[in-house]
Amino acid sequence: MVASNPLFVGWSLRKFNATVINDVWPEVFFFSAVAAMVACVTKLTSHDLAISNALLSVLGTVLGLVISFRTSSAYERYQEGRKMWTNISIASRNLGQIIWIHVPLNRKDASGRALTTVESVIEKKSMINLVQAFAVAVKHFLREEPGVYFQDLYPLICFLPRYANHLNPTAADMLPLWKASEDERYPLEQAVAPGSSTSSLPVKVEQPTGAGKKLRRAKTFDPEAALADIQAHRPLLPARNPPHTGFLDFFPVLKIFPWMFATCSRRVRATLLHTKNPKKKKGPLAESNVPLEITVYLSAYFAHLLQLGQLAPAVATSFMNNVASLQDTMSNLERIGSTPLPFAYQAHLRMSVWLYLCFLPFQIVASFGYLTIPGTAFAAFLLLGFLEIGSEIENPFQYDLNDLDLDSFCLAIQRELHEITAHTTPAPDDFVFSAWNQPFAPGDRRSAEELAAASKAGDYTHADHGDSEPGMMTIRRVLLWNYREVDRMTRQ
């Protein structure tokens, strides 16, 4: 995502590509050519192509309002998408804290066996990894990248069961999470150990040319290196798979020639073979919703903890509310990504802009003369640019340079969850009564260790106030004095 102000920082090729110049310059060139034709004919010949400009201001105002509405509605979707990702971050942090802190370490499993501390930590960290996997799965889901075999997703969920039948798993028993990702070239059945619902670790598969290549933002930046090193039975797709940028992307007007060539080639082949064009192979009726599957496992873990009585009622309510928040946010993101503005509205608006720009030179040539050419070019760049911006940010979850940086959002969630699990959740007695803590400053700058020792000796006093009364009354006086002093100091 490019968000810096180009007026105050240096330009680069990436920032130039983030503009809409590459998208609108063919149309700007066309309308400039129309304006040049009108100006030359009017000035160099006896024909006068000028027409009345009575409707110019009226139509321009209406068209400007419509384009403004188009851009505003697209930016509103952009902002809403960012808010939804903030909700995912908040819910992920809350779930991570609940699982890591509120789920007890000393407990029993479903069979009644007491879990060791190491086993409890492994279980809780694995479920927190599923929370991280949810954000990554949402990213791929919004980018229309189905399946689970990605370098940043598969290591987080590879331990989940593949089959409903644990004894003799077959293709008919494959769970939806893995069934939707199946590839005939790499069947999962051959990688399953007998009597296991998950796959064994097969021999590492050779990566084909270009597949599984990690996209690195810098020579030392490799976010997938922080994940588990799990050998899959098939090559893993890269975490980022942006569309290839070619020559035709900078000259979109030339895309008509490959389309014409492909259309003629298909017709020629169909004529020679005396067959009709084959229809596209239809995929399954419904693919597995990977984020939904992950929330199902989180809900199952929640039910497991409730059955064992390991969660307090308030904590259990918060756990379920955050899982529901993830599901609700996912539905809203899907709504934003899959509900574009109606085609009739977009087509009518673009045709209206084209007609306005076509007739603009005829209306201003009498007043502007040869300045009609740059004037039309500027008007075309302005109106068409806003239209293109609205179309680009309408779905802010793809790989355009102006889209939301979903990868950085997922990495931020990953860092926060690892920060949560880095805490050892010590008891307050282990860190409160230390020499580093001065709880009653500025009124009393003694450390908590000294205050506790004085309290045990029964001689807690505040020397500055000359108060000889020990105990809570002295503490209350110190806190009251703190309020007055802090209020005075912070208001000056």
Automatic annotation (TrEMBL):
The keyword Phosphoprotein does not apply. It is a multi-pass membrane protein. Pfam families: Bestrophin_2 (PF25539). The chain crosses the membrane at residues 24-44, 50-69, 354-387. It comes from the Eukaryota. The keyword Cytoplasm does not apply. This is Uncharacterized protein.
